[in-house]
Amino acid sequence: MRIPRQAARVAVLDPAGAVFLFRYDNEEVGVHWAMPGGGLDPGETPHAAAAREVREETGWTDLVLSGTVLCRWEHDFTRAGVPVRQREDIFLAYGPRRDPHGDLTAAHAADKILHWRWWSPDDLVGDTQALWPPQLPEVLAGLRTSGPAVSPIDLGYVPNARA
């Protein structure tokens, strides 16, 4: 039995269209790359959670998140030993290309964040490393060609490649 969990993430894009990603290690799905984000606190909206999570994980306090959800998806993984089915709302923000700021060691250790990097659109398309969500290159390519959608792109439930 999987516990339902609501989460929010932020696709942070630099002026050249590169996206900021963290490299995570998870006991169920293994090493993968994902955007800053995490679970909602009680009573928190997805937008507020996304803003809080990006601040906690990057130290950046100046990002302005879009008011609408870019895309959403559901997936399974194990968090702190508990199997969850997580539904994620992904928001969009633009900012300068920079390193995370401040002492984030404890936050990264708690979330099993191993590393971070900026990925150019070409890097995303040409790489074979696991991404959350796997459709991220296509979602961001659509954003570059047609701009943000009026309503969120629903990626649905995405099973784990290792399952």
Automatic annotation (TrEMBL):
One of its GO terms (molecular function) is hydrolase activity. Residues 3-141 form the Nudix hydrolase domain. Keywords: Hydrolase, Magnesium. PROSITE patterns: NUDIX, NUDIX_BOX. InterPro entries: Nudix_hydrolase, NUDIX_hydrolase-like_dom_sf, NUDIX_hydrolase_CS, NUDIX_hydrolase_dom. Its cofactor is Mg(2+). Belongs to the Nudix hydrolase family. This is 8-oxo-dGTP pyrophosphatase MutT (NUDIX family). The lineage of its organism: Bacteria, Bacillati, Actinomycetota, Actinomycetes, Kitasatosporales.
